[in-house]
Please model this.
Amino acid sequence: MKERIQLGHLSEVSGVSKRTLGYLFLHAYGITPMAFVKRERLRKACRLLQHADPSTTTVASIARECGFAHMGQFSLDYKSLLGESPSATLHQHPQADRIPDRQ
Model:
């Protein structure tokens, strides 16, 4: 399993305090750093599901690959951000850039 991204690590590699990093993300993106990370992981899952073969790929395998351990929460978060279930994405034909840039 891939290492989880943590706020402390982001703060360390960026060279600013957690509080400053939080402020900068809120100012630039309107969300916290960890919400940004989660959104990007969901967007990655969407891209992978769009291009996966439903006969050989499962939603759970894509979710795990993107760092999600709780499938129910993954599904809720995915639908909240992308407007459809992960399984619906997997079973549709690939379409150009259905992933929103911002929420």
